[in-house]
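Help! Submission page says 'invalid entity' but I think these are all valid:
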Amino acid sequence: MNKIAIVTGGSRGIGRAIVESLAGKGIKVIANYNKSEEKANELKEKLAKENIIIDIFKADVSKRADVKEMIDFVINKYGKIDILINNAGISQEKMFQDITDEDWDEIIKVNLYSVFSVTQEVIKNMLKNKEGCIINISSIYGINGGSCAVTYSATKAGIDGMTKALAKELGPSNIRVNSIAPGCMDTDMNSYLTEQEWEEIKNETPLQKIGKGIDIAKCVEWLVEDNFTTGQVISINGGLVIT
Ligand code: NAP
């Protein structure tokens, strides 16, 4: 039977590129979305024209009830989950002193709590199967911090911590857990950047370019096929951050 993968936040940006690449490799993909129903439908239809069938599922990953409903749907339909890509995320640019409790709670819920709750629901099945691949999309901001993005940076560092701890706990059950930490990518998340800011980032980046979703999707493809990598934070960033 085909491998079954869930990609959270699969409607746009990096998640969409991951959905396209995994589905193109014959993996049965469930692309989660929350607000972008039209984009999710458009992706499903586009792939169907290439004879690639995916499922799309609306769920707010910051809500446990939505997450449970999504995982139940997948288990009822396919009986197993082999691959989980925790990709959904939001960002915010704000001076630290202006961050409200509401801002903090929202970003923590969508970026960090979601990785906890989705993973917790998914591993029930992976533990039974004694097999699984979990990939968490963090960020270079979790590694070196982002000015005016303290909450976001905290969530991404938290994800990397979770990745390392879970890799140790789940390794004996043959479940691999890794993070991919993207650098600056050409997606809606960065649509607030000006032409000049894009140029500056490009100039600061040793490879002199901005990343695309496909750059992250290639790493996901590799991690899905690999069987000896776990607990790692792999940063795909054009050399912008070298540790
Ligand atoms: P994006 O283009 O803004 O897309 C964000 C995705 O997350 C959308 O599919 C969105 O779905 C989904 N999402 C947001 N809140 C959600 C929720 N509550 N429930 C379910 N889905 C939700 O962002 P992106 O650049 O592709 O980012 C993807 C991941 O990469 C994020 O975790 C981000 O932090 C990380 N990252 C991005 C960059 C970058 O430079 N862009 C750099 C480092 C890390 P809907 O639109 O359907 O709500």
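Support: the input was valid. A stray whitespace character was the problem, and the output above is from the cleaned input. The pocket of NAP is lined by residues 8-9, 11-15, 32-36, 60-62, 87-91, 110, 137, 139, 182, 184-185, 187-190 (CB under 6 Å).
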